[in-house]
Amino acid sequence: MTAQSTTQIPDPSTRYRRTGQRGINTEMLSWLFMRVSGVLLVILVFGHLFVNLWLGEGVKGIDFAFVAGKWASPFWQVWDLLMLWLGLIHGGNGVRTIINDYARGSTMRLVLKGLLYFAVVLTIVLGTLVVFTFDPCPVGADPSLLPSICEG
């Protein structure tokens, strides 16, 4: 006679830990961030497209002067910065999940995630510098090289 083992399936409405892990559930926070940032990105991107393409002259109206005029306003600087930060962190988090799912060895996973984090941080830093240090009319520049908005 053989002994039968029974498997108990926990009630799905209760929280339980399969790994015995303690502390903050970072994967749950990551999942939640993806949902919230995704909704915010949809609003930011469609707002960006609406203002730049529909209210303006379309693609033909977007040039250096258009961007310079837009970034003269702190509102649009913050808007574009939020798109940059949320887009990069959202995308980086998605790629991190893919690396965790498909990278076979722990060393390969570590290298790939290190490269990913480096690329995301570098792009965020450089993009933030561009948004906040952009000056379409630098002092001492050759006037023939400056856009028409700098005249006067």
UniProtKB/TrEMBL annotation:
**Pathway participation:** Carbohydrate metabolism; tricarboxylic acid cycle
Q: What is the lineage of its organism?
A: Bacteria, Bacillati, Actinomycetota, Actinomycetes, Micrococcales
One Pfam short name: Sdh_cyt
Query: How is the protein disposed in the membrane?
Result: Multi-pass membrane protein
Q: What is this protein called?
A: Succinate dehydrogenase hydrophobic membrane anchor subunit
Which keywords fit this entry according to its UniProt record?
Electron transport, Heme, Iron, Membrane, Metal-binding, Transmembrane, Transmembrane helix, Transport, Tricarboxylic acid cycle
Listed cofactors: heme
- Compartments where found: Membrane
Source organism? Brachybacterium epidermidis
Transmembrane portions of the chain:
32-55, 75-95, 115-134
Give the superkingdom in one word: Bacteria
CDD domains the UniProt entry points to: SQR_TypeA_SdhD_like
Function statement: Membrane-anchoring subunit of succinate dehydrogenase (SDH).
